[in-house]
Structure formats: structure tokens, C-alpha cells
């Protein structure tokens, strides 16, 4: 308890200094345009030589870790896209808590009231691309590292706290991952647990479960003919129309999950036909499915095949383009308990365990056997939109929580 009081007292005494440092760090990192897009969109950003170019933010992270005397590993599949892992603690217990934040950002898009790369401070908030996703939280984690080091608490941590600034989170590109996927596939990191500050929820939600995601492509195969003699062709759009009607009423076989609830299905795209005077030979749809635990790929595929067979004279090609499994960890896991206890005692807030339909690092980590939850500062509606922002006080609170939770989990 004495250590925790020391931490809380440090944050109280050094409020102004911590705030100024945080704001400066976020400002510096937001200035670096670490935009990550799929390779074919790269020409839209002529100032980029590579997607991401996270080395620009990594330089700031390394400068801070060097200044503080915190050892770190630089792990890169490509020099310009390095992952930086700072290490605090003695690493004697086999308990290693990773706090990963990503350095890449999505493009600014339209609708900004201010320059997205020049942080504006207004009403206690910082506006700019990446202030929330994910450079603000990264700055919080660095501040936490500084506090632990300054108070020499790092020497009392029997386990290890890993301060991770990672690359390549925002995009699934065909050349494979350079960040967490690369690190896990090559066994370059070995945390035993992780808290991922990349979900929003204003620190009131702890993401303990995420649905699986699948994309299914179905093509109706008809026969082309001249538009003046439709009787000679088979119209693939009519064929697909019948299937679409059945898909709208489709019922999955599943058990309602206590946190994730029900699966969802969205028919998001339809393409068919080439000209008014041609009978369309093919028609294609794309379906996004978010699954709950217990739903298997083969069963879902079978359900679509069975449904397709109900279309008279139908001829369909069904492909599962991607399939990721859902994950769910025990809502009474030690990570969740440590977060709840410290948030209640020191911030007077009551975070709740929730599930979500998207996918974060927490999914990747859990599917690799590392217990991970999502928890962090910021408003979930401010991700990937114009005028992205973060509340400064939440960044300070998150830095404090990082210190306190680390003491509980690896102290
Ligand atoms: Zn993010």
C-alpha cells in the first residue's frame, strides 16, 4: 500500500509538470504523419515512402526511454517500422504485463475544423489525428514508466512491465503484419498478460470478449445473353435476389453468450450486371458475420449451402474469405479485478466488463494464449473520425492507473 500512496502523492504533487509533459509528447507524436493504408492507397500520400513510417514516432519513444535509462528492445521486420519494447522490473516471477499502444494512424479524412497534425488544446481536450488512437494512450504509458522509474519502483517490481510501442495495427495488408502479428509469429515477445488501451469507453469499460469476424462471398452463376432475348440467358441478379431474401431471414445455430450476446450478419455489398442490354451472367454479394463462441466455420458454411439449395434452379459459388474466432476471458480474471479495484479506489469509477463486435490487439493476444483485456481512455465515438480528441485528465488518470495496476499485477 505504501508504494501506491507514493505513486498517488507523486501525481498530486507534480500535476502541472505531468500535464505539460503529456501534452508535449502527444503534440510531438501527432506531428509525425504515421499514416498506415493498404499499399494501393499509398500514392494518395506522396510524403510517405512506406506505409506507416512508424520510425518517426519510435524515435520519440526511444529518446524518452533513453533519457529515463529504461532498457528496450527494438524489434523490426523492416528498419523503418520498428516495434519498441521498454522493460521495467526484475522479471523474476514469470509474470509479465504488456501495455501495448500502436504508433500508426488512419488517414485524416475530411471534416476537420483544425489541422489534424497540429494538436489544438481546447476545453481540457487535445484535438488531432491519433490523440486518442493511439498516441495519447502511448504518451500515458510513457509517463507511467517515468513515474515508476523516478520513484525507483521499477526496482521493486518482481515481475516485468513491458512498455510496447508497436507498428502496423490499422491495416491488414497482403504483405503480412509488421507489428503484433510479426512479434508473436517469431516469438520475439513473451508477455503473460496485457492491457490494450485501444477501445475507448472512457475507462468505464473493460473489453473481456470480442466476437469473431468472417467475410463470406457468394456468387450466383447464370448465363449471359443479349438483353433483347432474355429467354436465352439465365439472369444471375434474379437468382441472387431470391437468395438475398432467404439470407435476410437466416437463423444461425448458436448459444447466446453471457457477454457477447448474439451473432450479427450484414449483407454489405452486391455487384451484378454490366449494361442494360446484357442479361447478367454473375452477381456477387459480400456478407460480414460477427460470431459468438461455439459457432464453427464448417457449420456456418453448411448453413449458407443449405440456404442456397432452396433457390429453384440456383447455381451458387460460396467462399469463406476470412474467418477469425471469437474470444472471451473470465470476467473475474486478475487483470479485470486489478483494474476494477484501483479504478474504484483511486478514481472513484466503476468499470464494467463488456464484449464487443470489433477486433483489437486483445483478440490477437488471447488467440495466442496471452490473457489480454482492452481498457483505456477516450470516447469510442472519436475513433477514425474528423476532430478526433482525448481528454487530458483521462490521459493523466490512465498514466496513474498504469502504475497502480502494474504494482498489483507484477509487483
Ligand atoms: Zn487503434
Explain the layout of strands and helices.
Layout: H1 2-13, H2 15-31, H3 55-68, E1 72-76, E2 82-88, E3 96-102, E4 120-122, E5 125-127, H4 135-150, E6 160-166, H5 180-185, E7 193-196, E8 205-210, E9 212-221, E10 225-226, H6 236-248, E11 264-272, E12 278-279, E13 282-291, H7 297-308, E14 316-323, E15 327-328, H8 334-347, E16 352-356, H9 361-367, E17 371-374, E18 389-391, H10 392-410
Parallel strand pairs: 3-6, 3-7, 7-17, 8-16
Antiparallel strand pairs: 1-2, 2-6, 4-5, 5-18, 8-15, 9-13, 9-14, 10-12, 11-13
Helix pairs in contact: 1-10, 2-4, 2-10, 3-4, 4-10, 8-10
Zinc ion binds next to loops.
Quick tags:
single chain; 411 residues; alpha+beta; Alpha-Beta Plaits; 32% helix; 24% strand; binds zinc ion
Plain-language structure description:
- The chain has helices spanning 2-13, 15-31, 55-68, 135-150, 180-185, 236-248, 297-308, 334-347, 361-367, 392-410; strands at residues 72-76, 82-88, 96-102, 120-122, 125-127, 160-166, 193-196, 205-210, 212-221, 225-226, 264-272, 278-279, 282-291, 316-323, 327-328, 352-356, 371-374, 389-391.
- The protein has 411 residues and is an alpha+beta fold.
- The chain folds into 2 domains: 2-210 and 326-410, 3-Layer(aba) Sandwich (Aminopeptidase), CATH 3.40.630; 217-323, Alpha-Beta Plaits, CATH 3.30.70.360.
- The strands form 5 sheets. It has a 6-stranded mixed sheet with strand order 1-2-6-3-7-17, with helices on both faces.
- β4 (120-122) and β5 (125-127) form a beta hairpin.
- The chain is elongated.
- It starts with a helix and ends with a helix.
- The protein binds zinc ion.
- Zinc ion binds at residues 102, 133-134, 169, 198.
- Zinc ion binds next to loops.
